[in-house]
Amino acid sequence: MGAACILILEGNPRLRSLLGWHLQQTNHSVHQSANIHHAKQLIHSHCPNLVIMEADLPDGNSLEFCQWVQQQQKSLIFMLSSQTTEADIVAGLKSGADDYLTKPFGMQEFMARVEALLRRQRSISCSPPISLDYGDLIIDLVHRRVKLNGSLIDLTPQEFSLLYVLAQSGGIPLTRSQLLHRAWPDSIDNPRTIDTHVLSLRKKIEIDPRQPSLIQTVRNVGYRFNREILTINTWEQNYQSYRQPQKVTPA
């Protein structure tokens, strides 16, 4: 079975390391975290196929975190817990977990459950996404519209296509030629026209278009979509305050 990107959120360092080692032996790409704050950063930066998490997290409510993961993307959730009552298992599954395994457990059963979940995840991935959800920024692929902090952003068809191509590249810098051919495959324009559309797009979605943080310029390459900036708690507040009309003090 092909390799997958897996995040392990587990407070016990020995168990976390053991699980990670076994998963890496089957060629999976594994990222590890001991707390929710770091795990959220890893989810935004790596978009894991599967999140393996313990139910007793040291820095937050595991059920709330489980619901948060569900809202971000199509990651499946595998919950590990020392809580064995029916009520605990039901609560975990209702919060969004796709599977629940009680501790202690055997490694063969753990690996078999992981592979079963990944088979399910791959079948889900065969269906095209209807939106890209980055928290503060939602790109609706069906209706071709964008919401930023809950407000609709009026984009031209060219700007929407450009933003979509940048966003789905996963943070990888794209050249102007790549952007031109992916966003507008039928266009015969000069790749430098990308600069004009990027400037227009920045005016609509950046906190400060003069100092762009979401659509970054990569020197000697082109542009990249910096989705990590959307995870910063102050970004929404700064965006709203910047967009509000500035009060002028009477002379």
The helix content is 40-55%
Low-confidence stretches: 246-251
Q: Sum up the overall morphology in one term.
A: elongated
Q: Given the helix and strand composition, which structural class is it?
A: alpha/beta
Portion in strands: 15-25%
How many angstroms separate the termini?
Answer: 71 Å
Query: What's the main sheet like?
Result: 5 strands, parallel
Q: Could you tell me the mean pLDDT?
A: 83
SSE string, helices as H and strands as E: EHEHEHEHEHEEEEHEHHEEH
In which order are the strands of the major sheet placed?
2-1-3-4-5
Count of distinct strands: 12
From the alpha carbons, calculate the radius of gyration and give it in angstroms: 21 Å
Number of helices: 9
Mind explaining what this structure looks like?
Helix 6 (157-167) packs across helix 7 (176-183) and helix 6 crosses helix 8. The chain has helices spanning 13-25, 36-46, 62-72, 86-94, 107-125, 157-167, 176-183, 193-205, 233-243, and strands at 5-9, 29-33, 50-54, 76-81, 99-102, 131-133, 137-140, 145-148, 151-153, 174-175, 215-218, 222-225. The longest helix is centred in the middle third of the chain and has 19 residues, at 107-125. The chain contains 9 helices and 12 strands. The chain is of the alpha/beta class. Helix content is 42%, strand content 20%. Strand 11 and strand 12 form a beta hairpin. The chain starts with a strand and ends in an 8-residue tail after the last helix.
Summarize the helices and strands and which ones pair or pack.
Elements: E1 5-9, H1 13-25, E2 29-33, H2 36-46, E3 50-54, H3 62-72, E4 76-81, H4 86-94, E5 99-102, H5 107-125, E6 131-133, E7 137-140, E8 145-148, E9 151-153, H6 157-167, E10 174-175, H7 176-183, H8 193-205, E11 215-218, E12 222-225, H9 233-243
Parallel strand pairs: 1-2, 1-3, 3-4, 4-5
Antiparallel strand pairs: 6-7, 7-8, 8-9, 10-12, 11-12
Helix pairs in contact: 6-7, 6-8
